C-alpha cells in the first residue's frame, strides 16, 4: 500500500476551533488525481516545532509515507515554525517547490511572499509545505504535483500514477 501523510499544523484546528478544511482539501485533491491505491495518514497538531518534527519523523520512518504534505505555519508570525521543522528533519532541501508555489500564489494574492513554504527529502520521503489558507491548497498543490511522482521515483519510493485527464505528471524519458 502507498501511504501519504497529511499534517494540519494549526493551533486553532488542533484545538477544535476550526474544522480541518485544509487537510481535507489535500485528501480531496489526491483522491481526485491519483489512480494508484493509496491511504492517507492523517494528523492535526499545534504549531509546536518539537511535536511537528516528531510527527514528520513518525509519518516518514514508522508509517512509511512516501510523501508528507503539511498545511499551515509557513508565515512570519512568531508561532509559524513549519519550514524550520521541515529543514530540521530533512537531509536535503528542495527549494524549487517553494519558489514555484510562491510564484503561482502571487497571481492570486500580493501576500504570497509571506509564505516561507518549502520542501525537503528525509530518506525516502518527500515533505512538502503548503500555506494554511483553504484556498491556497489547490493553487499550490496543483502547480507542483506534476513533478512529485518523478521526485518520489528518484528517492526510491513507490510508483505514483494519476488520472491523466485530471492531473498530468511528467517523467523524463531515460
Ligand atoms: N478551517 C479553516 N477555515 C477557515 N479558515 C481557515 C481554516 N484553516 C485555516 N484558515 C485560514 O488560514 C489562515 C492560516 O491558517 P493556519 O492554519 O496557518 O493558522 P494560523 O494563522 O497559523 O493560526 P493558528 O495556528 O493559531 O490556528 C488562518 O489565519 C485562517 O485565516
Ligand atoms: N495561494 C495562496 N498563497 C498564500 C496565501 C493565499 O491566500 N493563497 N496567503 C499568504 C499569506 S497571507 C501568508 S501569511 C502565508 C503564510 O500562511 P500560513 O502561515 O497559513 O502557512 O501564505 C501566503 N500564501
Order of helices and strands: EHHEHEHEHEEHH
CATH domain topology: Molybdenum Cofactor Biosythetic Enzyme, Chain A
Question: For this structure, what is the CATH class?
Answer: Alpha Beta
Q: Taking strands numbered 1, 2, ... along the chain, how are they ordered across the largest sheet? A: 2-1-3-6-5-4
Small molecules in complex? adenosine-5'-triphosphate, the ligand Nc1nc2c(c(=O)[nH]1)N[C@H]1C(S)=C(S)[C@@H](COP(=O)(O)O)O[C@H]1N2
Total strand segments? 6
Structural class, judged by helices and strands? alpha/beta
Number of helices: 7
Q: Tell me which CATH architecture applies here.
A: 3-Layer(aba) Sandwich
Distance between the termini: 26 Å
Provide the gyration radius in Å: 15 Å
Characterize the largest beta sheet: strand count, sense, and whether it forms a barrel: 6 strands, mixed
- What is the typical, i.e. mean, pLDDT? 98
The shape, in one word, is globular
Strand content: 15-25%
Description:
- The protein has 174 residues and is of the alpha/beta class.
- The protein has one domain (2-155): MoaB/Mog-like domain (Molybdenum Cofactor Biosythetic Enzyme, Chain A).
- Helix content is 39%, strand content 19%.
- It has helices at 11-14, 21-33, 49-62, 82-89, 95-105, 134-144, 148-154; strands at 2-9, 38-45, 67-71, 92-93, 119-122, 125-130.
- Strands 2-1-3-6-5-4 form a six-stranded mixed beta sheet, sandwiched between helices.
- Helix 2 (21-33) packs parallel to helix 6 and helix 3 crosses helix 4 (82-89).
- The protein is globular and about 45 Å long.
- The structure holds adenosine-5'-triphosphate (ATP) and ligand MTE.
- Adenosine-5'-triphosphate (ATP) binds at residues 10-13, 18-19, 21-22, 47, 72-73, 132-134.
- Ligand MTE binds next to helix 6.
- It is an enzyme of class 2 (transferase).
- Pathway: Cofactor biosynthesis; molybdopterin biosynthesis.
- This is Molybdopterin adenylyltransferase.
- It comes from Spirosoma radiotolerans.
- Pfam families: MoCF_biosynth (PF00994).
Amino acid at each position: 500500500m502507498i501511504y501519504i501523510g497529511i499534517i494540519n499544523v494549526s493551533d486553532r484546528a488542533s484545538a477544535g476551533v476550526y474544522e480541518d478544511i485544509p487537510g481535507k482539501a489535500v485528501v480531496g485533491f489526491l483522491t481526485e488525481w491519483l489512480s494508484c491505491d493509496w491511504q492517507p495518514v492523517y494528523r492535526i497538531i499545534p504549531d509546536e516545532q518539537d511535536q511537528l518534527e516528531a510527527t514528520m519523523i513518525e509519518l516518514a520512518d514508522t508509517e512509511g509515507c512516501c510523501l508528507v504534505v503539511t498545511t499551515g505555519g509557513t508565515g512570519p508570525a512568531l508561532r509559524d515554525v513549519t519550514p524550520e521543522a521541515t529543514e530540521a528533519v530533512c537531509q536535503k532541501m528542495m527549494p524549487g517547490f517553494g519558489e514555484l508555489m510562491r510564484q503561482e500564489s502571487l497571481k492570486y494574492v500580493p501576500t504570497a511572499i509571506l509564505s516561507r513554504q518549502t520542501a525537503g527529502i528525509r530518506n525516502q520521503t518527500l515533505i512538502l509545505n503548503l500555506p494554511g489558507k483553504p484556498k491556497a491548497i489547490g493553487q499550490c498543490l496543483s502547480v507542483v504535483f506534476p513533478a512529485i511522482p518523478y521526485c518520489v521515483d528518484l528517492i526510491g519510493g513507490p510508483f505514483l500514477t494519476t488520472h491523466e485527464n485530471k492531473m498530468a505528471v511528467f517523467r523524463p524519458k531515460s
